[in-house]
Amino acid sequence: MDSNQFREAAVASIDESERHVVSKVEPGYLRKLLPDAAPEDGEAWADIQKDIEVKIVPGLTHWQSPNFLAWFPCSSSFPGMLGEMWSAAFNGAGFNWICSPAVTELETIVLDWLARAFALPECYLSNGSTHGGGVIHGTASEAIATVMVAARDKYLREATSHLAPGSEELEDAIALKRSKLVALGSTATHSATQKAAMIAGVRFRAVPVRAEDGYKLTGEGLRKAITEIRAKGLEPFYLTVTLGTTDTCSIDDFDSITAVLAELAPPGPGELWVHVDAAYAGVALICPEYQHLSQNLDKFHSFNTNMHKWMLTNFDCSVLWVRCRRWLIEALGVSLAILRNDYTDSGLVTDYRDWQIPFGRRFRSLKIWFVVRTYGIKGLQAHIRKHIGFGEMFAGLVKTRQDLFEIVTGPRFALTVFKLQGKEIEGATLEDQNAVTKTLHDVVNAEGKIFLSSTVVGGVFAIRHCPSTPFVEAEHVKHHFQVLVEAAEKVLSRTNNTKI
């Protein structure tokens, strides 16, 4: 099977003609179909393969379908799958260089490739002036937890550097400081930051964002939050800023945030570690028209984006860069006698176990290597631009039916956020309007022709449409809109009859 045949087979297997995008099974369905205990003797592969189709596939939601529009995509590609296959075949833990030198060195090289392709500042390159570099994690949540732990230890280390190492006074000072630490994000920041704060044992505060600011974090909002936190005797040490928020794909105001931090928490002891969460939209930096967004990144400490969301690389593959690798190594480095080897002792190699929370790691860089070499930078740029065009197409269609829909935000990075409107709900309370939009969302998903996710922004319940799965084409976008129009007309007709 060559790549064209593979693509045709993949599209045919997930097309809308026969299967719902979302699984329709009830909770606990699989336990009824499988035996209570594992088989004593091995079974024929033909029987196992049959059960995939009969018992497993009905319980899948088809993320590769052109009608999967929810959350953000989890993309795949023929070269990405081959990279996954080769990684599984080589099957090594990869915790240090000597485990398999190619695993470490290919990762360093391809992440430098990507850093240059995304126009990241030189400090994020493995040979940059501050000796930064990139590492592959499983997900953006893992990356955020990792850098928050590094930020916590960096802050505590610098705040107590005047005390004697190993002393009881140092131990007490660290414990006291730790109890006061606060991690910051905005109310539009992904919940991964709050979860990372739970893992790191620190407090979390969310800075409000406003509709009039485009739901982005601003320097003004950050200033107020830092001032209030410090007035309570607490110490902010970490901030997540976002390039492409989950709800609306908004971009935080990096310029004003940078200016406020330069004033309230300048570089040096007491500074805030700033991490850029660009899990979905970050890969758009491969297109020159978006590379102005990377201009302030040299003032921040780390940057992360997911290749597995929008860059044709199979889940999981989240790439993280830091300005200074020493920050990770000092927080996460481990040393055991069994790990000693001449190459590690020489200091001339990278042991990526010290750049992450897990010990072992997979050969994920193969997937990136295969995808980048197969598509090339120009092919990947075309891929991103194609979906951004589909987002603009959908928003244009929505505007042709202003009797039914209103755009809340977008289109941004292919994402359009919209709500239901019409004469049937004019003058209704926001609560009732939200209820009708939610009904539309539920009706569409129940039909199973397309799958959408929802959000609440500024108190408004809204529907998200994100046409960036690998197989989506213009005809699919037109189909999505037609499904929504038909459902909206039914919902509004029903609403008119029941009189809100």
TrEMBL record:
<keyword id="KW-0663">Pyridoxal phosphate</keyword>
<dbReference type="InterPro" id="IPR015424">
    <property type="entry name" value="PyrdxlP-dep_Trfase"/>
</dbReference>
<dbReference type="GO" id="GO:0006520">
    <property type="term" value="P:amino acid metabolic process"/>
</dbReference>
<dbReference type="GO" id="GO:0005737">
    <property type="term" value="C:cytoplasm"/>
</dbReference>
<dbReference type="InterPro" id="IPR015421">
    <property type="entry name" value="PyrdxlP-dep_Trfase_major"/>
</dbReference>
<comment type="similarity">
    <text>Belongs to the group II decarboxylase family.</text>
</comment>
<dbReference type="GO" id="GO:0019752">
    <property type="term" value="P:carboxylic acid metabolic process"/>
</dbReference>
<dbReference type="InterPro" id="IPR021115">
    <property type="entry name" value="Pyridoxal-P_BS"/>
</dbReference>
<dbReference type="InterPro" id="IPR015422">
    <property type="entry name" value="PyrdxlP-dep_Trfase_small"/>
</dbReference>
<dbReference type="InterPro" id="IPR010977">
    <property type="entry name" value="Aromatic_deC"/>
</dbReference>
<dbReference type="GO" id="GO:0016831">
    <property type="term" value="F:carboxy-lyase activity"/>
</dbReference>
<dbReference type="GO" id="GO:0030170">
    <property type="term" value="F:pyridoxal phosphate binding"/>
</dbReference>
<protein>
    <submittedName>
        <fullName>Pyridoxal-dependent decarboxylase conserved domain-domain-containing protein</fullName>
    </submittedName>
</protein>
<keyword id="KW-0210">Decarboxylase</keyword>
<dbReference type="InterPro" id="IPR002129">
    <property type="entry name" value="PyrdxlP-dep_de-COase"/>
</dbReference>
<keyword id="KW-0456">Lyase</keyword>
<dbReference type="Pfam" id="PF00282">
    <property type="entry name" value="Pyridoxal_deC"/>
</dbReference>
<feature type="modified residue" description="N6-(pyridoxal phosphate)lysine">
    <location>
        <position position="309"/>
    </location>
</feature>
